[in-house]
C-alpha cells in the first residue's frame, strides 16, 4: 500500500537553510505536495510538484524530486522564526481522486 | 475569493452521541474531501465527494458517513461516538492546477 515517511524533528538557526526530507512508496504518485500546519490551525498548501519534474522553485522554497529513489525534499532558504511549524509531505495518485496520503509530519523549530 | 469554511470550530460530545460537521468549499469547487487528524494516526483520508456523489472512501467504520449538497457544501456525520473519535476533522476543497486541495481550519471534536 501507499506509505509516506518523514523525519519527525528538525531544528535550525534563524537565517540558515532548512531541508525537510520525505520518501514515498507509491510508484504511481502523480503529484507530491508540501503542507504547513501551525498550532491550532488547518493545513496550508505551500507548493506541489508533478511527478515528471525534478525541481520546482517558489520564492524561498525549493522542491527536489528524485523519482527513481522516491525521495522528495523541501528546502526553505533564510529560515525565519515564523517558519516554525509542522510540515507534511503528501502524495496523490492522480486521476482526480483527491485522496492524499500524508507523512507523519516534521516539526521544524527555528531558533533565534 | 472566500476560503474553506468549517463549522463548528469546536465541539464537545459524550460517548454514544452523534455529531454533524459542515464544510463550505471555495466557490466553484465541486469536490470536497474529509480527513481525520489524531496524534497517534496522523492525517487519514475519510471520503471524497464530487457533485453529490461519494467517489472515494477511506478505511473507516460505517459510523462515519457524509453527504454533499447541490451547492457543493458537505457534511460529515459520526454516529455512536467513541473516545477514539476525538480528533481534528479537516475538510479540503478540491480544484485548480495540480489537483490541489485547500484545507479549512478544521473542527476539533472532543468525546468525553
What does this structure look like?
Chain A has 112 residues and is mainly β. Chain A has no helices and eleven strands. In chain A, strands 2, 4, 5, 9, 10 and 11 form a six-stranded mixed sheet that branches. Chain A is globular and about 40 Å long. The model of chain A has no long low-confidence stretch (mean pLDDT 93). With 112 residues, chain B is mostly beta strands. Chain B has strands at residues 5-7, 10-13, 19-24, 31-38, 42-50, 53-57, 64-68, 74-78, 87-94, 101-103, 107-111. In chain B, the strands form two sheets. In chain B, strands 2, 4, 5, 6, 9, 10 and 11 form a seven-stranded mixed sheet that branches. Chain B is globular and about 40 Å long. Classes of the chains: A mainly beta (112), B mainly beta (112). The A-B interface holds A 30-31, 33, 35, 41-45, 48, 50, 88, 90, 92, 94, 96-105 and B 4, 31, 33, 35, 42-43, 45, 48, 50, 55-56, 58, 90, 92, 94, 98-106.
Mean pLDDT of chain B: 95
Number of strands of chain A: 11
> How many H/I helices of chain A?
0
Helix share, percent of chain B:
under 10%
Rg of chain B, please?
A: 13 Å
Brief synopsis:
Chain A is mostly beta strands and 112 residues long. Chain A is built from no helices and eleven strands. In chain A, the strands form two sheets. In chain A, strands 2, 4, 5, 9, 10 and 11 form a six-stranded mixed sheet that branches. In chain A, strands 1-3-8-7-6 form a five-stranded antiparallel sheet, with no helix packed on it.
